[in-house]
Design brief:
The chain has one helix and five strands; from the N terminus they run βββββα. Helices cover 22% and strands 35% of the residues. It has one domain. The N and C termini lie far apart (42 Å). It has a five-stranded antiparallel β-sheet. The N terminus is likely disordered.
């Protein structure tokens, strides 16, 4: 099953254990997303690059305010 909106996509795929955090690449070997575990379906989710970019930018802004 695949879902999407104007900003991103999520593809539910069946992969073996230990795959979380691996890159998902397209037919041109470009980064298409990041694989993470979906515990509800016991499968994997490929999270698209726009969602990852949003996460990194929001997290970076939050981490910048923490003392080192």
């Amino acid at each position: 099953m695949t879902s999407h909106d104007s900003a991103d996509f999520v593809a539910h795929v069946l992969l073996g254990p230990g795959i979380s955090g691996a890159p998902a690449v397209d037919g041109y070997d470009d980064l298409a997303g990041l694989i993470t575990m979906d515990h509800d379906s016991a499968g994997a989710i490929v999270v698209g690059p726009q969602l990852l970019d949003t996460f990194v930018h929001r997290t970076s802004a939050l981490l910048a305010h923490l003392p080192t």
